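Design job #97: recover the sequence.
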């Protein structure tokens, strides 16, 4: 279903996009960008690139998020409002999504092609991209510094946790929350929860002290492990929760959770449907398009810097990128 929330109306999106292009000083003049035609907040990606001067090829095959015709229509509407319809061409030869970028796809790329990742380098998932094939073919790859002041996506992380907690029936205010976190997300989530009058205990590993004398929720925000490795929240953790704080709600924000173990101990978990391995349990677009516009503009800036060549990059440019 299309996202019809009024905060995603095209006029508001365009204002946010213009501001993001200006903040990032995004200039893709003379470049060709291959990306996706998408729905919801992600409709902005090809239009942002075109607004920055690129010629854009938008993949618009049907996906679970909409038919090819719907994705084209959404993109065309926003591009028309931005005045860049003539810079966007649609293609459907591939699936509707750029990823996975496999060996075959990498081998067909021309010299000088670059791949910006729309996330930080430490979040890299091998399922997205064959990094060894990229190195073999001299294809530059870099992550996006989401904490750069012009991007500032991390400042929305706490809002996402609050949304999940509210959906699970935890009001945050006056709630006692254990934040299980081993990565850079932690301070941002903790600060937002505290600013909303929660009592927060942040720990890298679950222990009885974080759950006693009671705990309203455990927010799991752990770096996902490799396939076959022990999950971030284990069967042992499930037994600990059962023994110390059996009325606790487990919030799967990011990281793998042994849901079968939680079910065996009759412990509630949110969201109801488990996210795909390695994916967040809440999308950044859940609280509006703002973070997505910022992230996609930042990722395109990474592509700009890589395409111009790192030897030509200023310190200000390098601040946007995170090399793998």
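Job complete. Output follows.
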């Amino acid at each position: 279903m299309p996202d019809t929330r009024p905060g995603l109306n095209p006029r508001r999106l365009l204002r946010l996009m213009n501001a993001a292009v200006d903040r990032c000083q995004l200039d893709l003049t003379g470049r060709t960008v291959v990306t996706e035609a998408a729905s919801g907040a992600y409709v902005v990606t090809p239009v942002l690139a075109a607004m920055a001067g690129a010629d854009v090829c938008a993949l618009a095959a049907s996906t679970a998020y909409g038919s090819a015709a719907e994705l084209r229509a959404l993109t065309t509407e926003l591009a028309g409002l931005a005045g860049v319809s003539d810079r966007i061409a649609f293609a459907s030869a591939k699936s509707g999504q750029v990823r996975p970028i496999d060996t075959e796809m990498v081998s067909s790329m021309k010299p000088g092609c670059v791949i910006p990742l729309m996330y930080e380098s430490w979040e890299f998932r091998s399922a997205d991209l064959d990094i060894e094939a990229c190195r073999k073919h001299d294809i530059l790859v870099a992550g996006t510094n989401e904490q750069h002041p012009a991007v500032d996506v991390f400042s929305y992380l706490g809002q996402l946790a609050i949304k999940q907690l509210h959906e699970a029936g935890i009001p945050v205010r006056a709630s006692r929350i254990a934040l299980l976190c081993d990565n850079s997300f932690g301070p941002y989530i903790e600060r937002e929860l505290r600013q909303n009058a929660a009592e927060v205990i942040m720990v890298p590993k679950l222990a009885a002290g974080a759950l006693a004398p009671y705990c309203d929720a455990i927010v799991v925000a752990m770096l996902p492990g490799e396939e076959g490795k022990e999950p971030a929240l284990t069967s042992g953790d499930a037994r600990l929760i059962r023994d110390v704080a059996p009325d606790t709600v487990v919030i799967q924000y990011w990281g793998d959770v042994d849901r079968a173990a939680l079910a065996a101990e009759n412990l509630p978990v949110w969201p109801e449907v488990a996210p795909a391995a390695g994916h967040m349990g809440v999308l950044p677009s859940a609280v509006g398009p703002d973070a997505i516009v910022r992230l996609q503009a930042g990722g395109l800036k990474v592509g700009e810097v890589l395409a111009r060549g790192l030897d030509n990059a200023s310190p200000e440019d390098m601040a946007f990128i995170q090399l793998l």
